[in-house]
Write a structure and sequence with these properties.
Order of helices and strands: EEHHEEEHE
Helix content: 10-25%
Number of domains: 1
Number of strands: 6
Largest sheet: 6 strands, mixed
Number of helices: 3
């Protein structure tokens, strides 16, 4: 696997990130954002010409996550896999299907 250490979180898994959950005292700000883990690219030209996205992810301990608002590189240790239950899905913001 490129950039994602085996056994952590597999591409395609739905996750929530600790720092994308609304604070208890500001629950009205936004819903819980659920993202989908992506496989980081190994193409140098798609990232910065010197390193690949996979290199960046490995060096920084991040994983590319596709959210409804775009792709973010979130810290792997702050991600939690979630099940797509109907009740949970209604309370969350899910990424758009391709």
């Amino acid at each position: 696997m490129n950039g994602i250490k085996p056994g952590i979180i597999k591409p395609g898994t739905y996750v929530i990130c600790d720092y994308r959950i609304p604070a208890e005292h500001q629950w009205w700000v936004h819903c819980i954002h659920v993202g989908q883990v992506m496989e980081p690219s190994t193409n140098l030209t798609q990232w910065n010409g010197r390193n690949s996205e996979a290199d960046y992810c490995e060096a920084t301990g991040t994983i590319p996550i596709r959210y409804k608002f775009g792709v973010m590189h979130d810290t792997a240790l702050k991600l939690h896999p979630v099940d797509a239950t109907e009740d949970f899905m209604m309370a969350c913001s899910w990424p758009e299907e391709n």
